[in-house]
Amino acid sequence: MSVDALKSSLPDYAKDTKLNLGSVTSTSQLTEQQLWGTVLATALASRNPVVIRELAEEAGDYLSAEAFAAAKGAASIMAMNNVYYRSTHLLSDETYGTLRAGLRMNIIGKPGVDKVDFELWCLAVSAINGCGMCLDSHEKVLREAGMPREQIQEAIKIASVVHAVALTLEGEAALAPATV
C-alpha cells in the first residue's frame, strides 16, 4: 500500500508526520473522492516524485478516471493561479490587482467532477503554495455551498501533512551520502 510505503520511508525523527499521514488518510469526514482527490492534488503540489508516485498509485484505487484527471487539473491550474494572484496581492502597487488576468481557467468552471470537490482540491493546493487570495476565494465558495469548516480544515491538514512528508523525504535525500 502506498501510504504505508511512505510511512515506512520516513525517519524516526518524523514520527509525528508518519502518524499524521496515517490519520489524515484513514479517519476522514470527507467523501472518498474528496479525500483522495485532495491527497493527489497536494502530492502533485509537493513536487516530490516519490510522494507523487506513491500517493497517485493509491489515489488511483479510489478515484474514477475523471476525478483523477480533475485532481491533476486542480494542481495544474492552481500552480498558475497561486503565483499570479499571490503576486498581485503582494505588489505594493495595488493597480495590478485591478487589471484583468487574461489567463485561461476554463477547468474551474467545468472540472469534470462535483464543483465542491474541485474547489476543495484547489483550496488544499493553495495552502501548499501559500496564496491567501486563493485560499479566501475557494473557502468562500465552499462555505457558500454548505461545506462545514471542519471539512475545509481537514483538506488543509491533508495538505500540510503531504507537504511535510515531501519535505522530510527531500531533506533525507539531500543529506544522504552521494554514491558514485
Automatic annotation (TrEMBL):
GO terms for molecular function: disulfide oxidoreductase activity; hydroperoxide reductase activity; peroxiredoxin activity. GO terms for biological process: cell redox homeostasis; response to oxidative stress. Its EC number is 1.11.1.28. Keywords: Antioxidant, Disulfide bond, Oxidoreductase, Peroxidase, Redox-active center. Residues 99-170 form the Carboxymuconolactone decarboxylase-like domain. It catalyses: N(6)-[(R)-dihydrolipoyl]-L-lysyl-[lipoyl-carrier protein] + a hydroperoxide = N(6)-[(R)-lipoyl]-L-lysyl-[lipoyl-carrier protein] + an alcohol + H2O. The active site is at 131 (proton donor), 134 (cysteine sulfenic acid (-soh) intermediate). Disulfide bonds join 131-134. Pfam families: CMD (PF02627). It comes from the Bacteria. Antioxidant protein with alkyl hydroperoxidase activity. Required for the reduction of the AhpC active site cysteine residues and for the regeneration of the AhpC enzyme activity. HAMAP family: AhpD. Belongs to the AhpD family. Homotrimer. This is Alkyl hydroperoxide reductase AhpD. It comes from Actinomadura macrotermitis.
